[in-house]
């Protein structure tokens, strides 16, 4: 029973949950049938995609819910006796996960009803609402798993965030393989085949029941208590006091928050604009539907490698050299700019090569920025702060996907023989990707400013803390 209550079993449970809830990453597979069945043009489809991006990144509610129902090491100082009793005896991450499962089922179920014609074709705003609900569920799974992981492994935040976020990215490839095996050539079946309640049916409550002990006495403090090494303990306490524990309002008033937010809008926004339009990009370049599905599946794999790799590598150099983590944001944004230029070239195989580069560096950002948030703003309100920074993704995606990519595609399109609007040739997206490469260069500069602003803090506080 003690082993079942360990933080390691909780991590395994988190991985299984993440593996089953990444349906938003396979939008490129079912978006063509959504477009044809509902009679959308590219800009309208991109509007639905933006609703997905907003839902998948608007995590404030999940952050507030997590703080309200989950016991943490800082809870007892600020909560009433009744609230503390609820959090310890009844509450836990399972409540957050259940809320996400309900939303996931409702959103995808009604989308499936609309696509299959069981219900009348809904207005575009209503379809956007269905997509928003389905994707919004992802923030609840993410918050429960990421914040718990960071609090359970305080010295290896980058690695644990990379693992948790990485398996979410990988879930897209797994869902596509399930579809290819069971529901081939029936993309409308893909979304309801994602059984949302699978995440909840895992005994989340028992698997996370160790969170109280894991957070009250982590491995670092347990060693100190057993050895009586109070000098080191006193130094760690002093270092902890130097780490800020800001709430959302306090974080919003800092320059570092807006530098991080703006850099993420450039990187995550251009990445989402690419993955949301990858089927249309492939179609314009002559790729078959099977090849574009393969591209989406491969994107998920590169996404996973980027998320896990960036978390591990940034942790390695932080422990070894004390490198400030924002420097890796500079590298990933530069890499994304290169990927955009490769796709813009329109050369044979460029979409495969460019999507590989972009998938890796795009995924890297999803493990880096939550970790950076936990280090420069503290973990007490991490759920609300990192979910607020994540809003940069739909903001950037809306501007770049709808106002740039969709607009230029529709402008270059014409009616084909079947009466549908389409565009053939590299000119359909070339200008869009050149502009997005420039946007990534801008984000690279913003991340570089953040690096210089936080470099001393990482050396004087974070590096010394992890070394002890």
TrEMBL record:
Ranges where the Nodulin-like domain occurs: 7-68, 93-186
InterPro entries noted in UniProt: MFS_trans_sf (IPR036259), NFD4_C (IPR056555), Nodulin-like (IPR010658)
Gene3D superfamilies: MFS general substrate transporter like domains
Topology term for the membrane: Multi-pass membrane protein
Pfam name, any one: Nodulin-like
Cellular component terms per the entry's GO annotation: membrane
Subcellular location(s) per record: Membrane
UniProt KW keywords: Membrane, Transmembrane, Transmembrane helix
Protein name: Nodulin-like domain-containing protein
């Amino acid at each position: 029973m003690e082993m079942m209550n360990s933080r390691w079993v909780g991590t395994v449970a988190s991985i299984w949950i993440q593996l089953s809830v990444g349906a938003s990453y396979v939008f490129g597979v079912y978006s063509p049938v959504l477009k044809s069945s509902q009679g959308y043009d590219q800009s309208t489809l991109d509007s639905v995609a933006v609703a997905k991006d907003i839902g998948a990144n608007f995590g404030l509610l999940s952050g507030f819910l997590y703080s309200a129902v989950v016991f943490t090491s800082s809870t007892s100082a600020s909560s009433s006796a009744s609230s503390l009793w609820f959090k310890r005896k009844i509450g836990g991450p399972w409540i957050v996960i259940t809320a996400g499962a309900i939303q996931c089922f409702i959103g995808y179920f009604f989308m499936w009803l609309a696509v299959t014609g069981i219900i009348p074709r809904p207005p575009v705003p209503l379809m956007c609402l269905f997509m928003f609900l389905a994707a919004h569920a992802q923030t609840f799974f993410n918050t429960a798993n990421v914040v718990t992981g960071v609090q359970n492994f305080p010295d290896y935040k980058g690695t644990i965030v990379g693992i948790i976020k990485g398996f979410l990215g990988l879930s897209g490839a797994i869902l596509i393989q399930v579809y290819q095996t069971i529901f081939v050539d029936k993309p409308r079946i893909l979304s309801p085949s994602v059984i949302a309640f699978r995440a909840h049916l895992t005994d989340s409550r028992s698997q996370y029941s160790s969170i109280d002990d894991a957070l009250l006495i982590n491995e670092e403090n347990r060693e100190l208590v057993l050895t009586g090494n109070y000098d080191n303990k006193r130094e760690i306490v002093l270092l902890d006091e130097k780490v800020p524990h800001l709430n959302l309002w306090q974080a919003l008033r800092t320059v570092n928050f807006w530098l991080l937010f703006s850099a993420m809008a450039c990187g995550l926004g251009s990445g989402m604009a690419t993955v949301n339009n990858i089927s249309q990009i492939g179609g314009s370049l002559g790729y078959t539907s099977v090849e574009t599905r393969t591209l989406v599946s491969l994107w998920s794999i590169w996404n996973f490698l980027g998320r896990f790799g960036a978390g591990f590598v940034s942790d390695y150099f932080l422990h070894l050299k004390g490198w400030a983590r924002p420097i890796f944001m500079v590298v990933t944004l530069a890499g994304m700019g290169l990927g955009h230029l490769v796709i813009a070239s329109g050369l044979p195989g460029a979409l495969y090569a460019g999507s590989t580069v972009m998938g890796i560096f795009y995924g890297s950002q999803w493990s880096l920025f939550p970790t950076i948030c936990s280090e420069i703003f503290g973990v007490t309100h991490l759920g609300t702060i990192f979910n607020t920074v994540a809003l940069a993704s739909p903001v950037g995606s809306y501007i770049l996907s709808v106002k740039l990519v969709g607009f230029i595609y529709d402008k270059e399109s014409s009616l084909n023989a079947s009466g549908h609007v389409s565009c053939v040739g590299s000119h359909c997206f070339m200008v869009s990707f050149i502009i997005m490469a420039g946007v990534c260069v801008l984000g690279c500069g913003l991340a570089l400013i953040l690096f210089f602003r936080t470099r001393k803090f990482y050396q004087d506080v974070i590096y010394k803390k992890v070394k002890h």
